[in-house]
Amino acid sequence: MANKNRSSPSSATPKLMEVSGFSLMNEDLLRNILSRLPAISFASAATVSKTWNAACCHILSRPKLSSAISLKPLPLVALQEVFDKVMSEPIRPHFAIASVGPGFEIKDVLQFMVEKVRSRTPIIVSSVKGILGRDALSHEFREVKWIDGNIDEVPVNTGIVLTVGFVPGLKVDVIPLLRQRKAPQGSMIDKFVQDIKSYTSSMSGCTSPQAIIMIGDGSVDQKPILEKLDYAMSMETIIVGDERGQFVYRSSDVSRNVGTNKKHSPDAVALVFARDRNKARGIGNIEFHFALSKGVSAIGPRLKAASVRVQDSYTVTWLTARREGQQEILDGQQMLEDIDNE
Question: Where are the domains of the chain?
Answer without folding.
Answer: 20-59, 64-275, 303-341
